[in-house]
Amino acid sequence: MKLYHTMIRVRDLARSLDFYCNFLGLHEVRRHELGEEATLVFLSDQEKHYYLELTFNKDGRDYEMGNQFGHLAFLTPDLDSVIQEVEKRGWSFRSSKPSAKSRYIFVKDPDGYDIEILQDRS
Predict the structure, then answer these.
(1) How would you class 122 by CB atoms within 10 Å of its CB: exposed for 0-12, middle for 13-18, buried for 19 or more?
(2) For residue 88, how many other CB atoms are within 10 A of its CB?
(3) Which of 49, 67, 75, 114 could disulfide-pair with 120, CB 3.0 to 4.6 Å?
(4) Backbone φ and ψ of 21, nearest 5°
(5) Is 28 assigned a catalytic role?
(6) Domains of the chain in sequence order
(7) Predicted model pTM
(8) Is 41 exposed, middle or buried (0-12, 13-18, 19+ CB in 10 A)?
(9) pLDDT tens digit string along 27-86?
(10) Of 36, 47, 64, 116, catalytic
């Protein structure tokens, strides 16, 4: 058995696609329309080993951010350039303490989900 995908609900599909594709570098690999009910968009990185499903419900419902979910994590080879991009977009972020064993930041996506971006140390 292998892990296949994670689904998150989004309020504004265009804003979420901008964040996950244009900022984080994921690519849309599949889209499924469920009539007037919902749009499902599957995103992945170049290797396509794992998918993130963005679910946009078309009925106008709102969501509350629960406390059961932690965060999504992404690796980058150049955390400094990511920080520059975050600052350029005017987004706030939390960064690792200088004494931490790894370097990372946390930024919120358009729906308030925590996104951790770690410096790849490999």
Answers:
(1) exposed
(2) 8
(3) 75
(4) -95, -55
(5) no
(6) 1-59 (3.10.180.10), 70-122 (3.30.720.110)
(7) 0.84
(8) buried
(9) 999 999 999 999 999 999 999 989 999 999 999 888 887 877 889 999 999 999 999 999
(10) 116
